[in-house]
Write a structure and sequence with these properties.
Number of domains: 1
CATH topology: Rossmann fold
Order of helices and strands: HHHEHEHEHEHEHEEH
Distance between the termini: 58 Å
Strand content: 15-25%
Helix content: 25-40%
Largest sheet: 7 strands, mixed
Shape: globular
Strand order of the largest sheet: 3-2-1-4-5-7-6
Radius of gyration: 20 Å
Structural class: alpha/beta
Length: about 250
């Protein structure tokens, strides 16, 4: 080191030390608890294990989920996603807006892989996350299609009739309803997991929307609930226009 604390041309900076991440084998207890909360077939469990292994590998390079949630990945993310299936047991075509790391859409695709006619559209505009989703669909071999575009663009040109639209941690409910409106108005059911502020979000949404909705308790978080939307009508034209694609 030269005088004044500045580095000379031959000084070497110490390597950055990165804390080792969680490995799939570290999650056996959390996996068991998650599958007790949301039982699945052996084949589905195996697909989910491949998905989790791939996610943790990519997580070292791309921030797909909050690092603090890695130790509870199975209950916090996998089971939290699987529980939506019981709210729409006959649904075949699902759309997951802002799919991110694949929650809930990719997980639902894992569970529906052996169901005839099942398809899940994973809508994600973030390039890196969309790349991960494409690799996950390939590795896990599930009936899912990644659409690297904005939610607003997809819903206005959905390729087929949709049974269920989901979104997890994408936006406040009022804005989320605007994004999903073109699908909901055509008969899709909305399944939107929300935290303990759900009542506040419903009150705010009611200023713009006439919402036919019920709250289903979460199996994974006693403070959380799932907003099940079966009918939606704007109180004015403005909210519906928010969901329209920009031209």
């Amino acid at each position: 080191m030269i005088a004044g604390g500045r580095r000379g041309p031959h000084d070497v900076r110490p390597a950055l030390v990165r804390t080792p991440g969680v490995k799939p084998e570290d999650l056996s207890h959390d996996r068991a608890r998650a599958l007790e909360l949301t039982p699945v077939s052996r084949e589905t469990a195996e697909r989910l294990e491949r998905f989790v292994a791939l996610l943790l590998d990519w997580q070292r390079r791309v921030n797909l989920i909050a690092p603090s949630t890695e130790p509870a990945l199975w209950t916090r993310h996998i089971a939290d996603s699987l529980q939506l299936l019981s709210l729409a047991p006959d649904a075949r075509v699902w759309v997951d807006l802002g799919s991110g790391a694949g929650f809930p859409g990719l997980v639902i695709a894992c569970a529906l892989a052996e169901t005839s006619g099942a398809r899940v559209y994973l809508v994600e505009s973030n390039t890196k996350k969309a790349a991960f989703l494409r690799e996950a669909v390939r590795v896990v071999a599930v009936p899912a299609f990644v659409r690297g575009e904005r939610a607003e663009d997809f819903v206005n040109a959905a390729p087929e009739a949709v049974d269920v639209v989901t979104a997890r941690a994408l936006a406040p409910l009022r804005d989320l309803l605007a994004k999903a409106y073109p699908l909901l108005v055509k008969g899709a059911v909305g399944l939107f997991p929300k935290g303990q502020a759900v009542e506040v979000e419903l009150t705010e949404a009611a200023k713009c929307w006439r919402v036919q909705a019920v709250l289903a308790p979460s199996r994974t978080d006693p403070k959380a609930q799932i907003v099940v939307v079966r009918g939606l009508e704007p109180k004015s034209a403005a909210p519906a226009r928010r969901g329209a694609a920009k031209r």
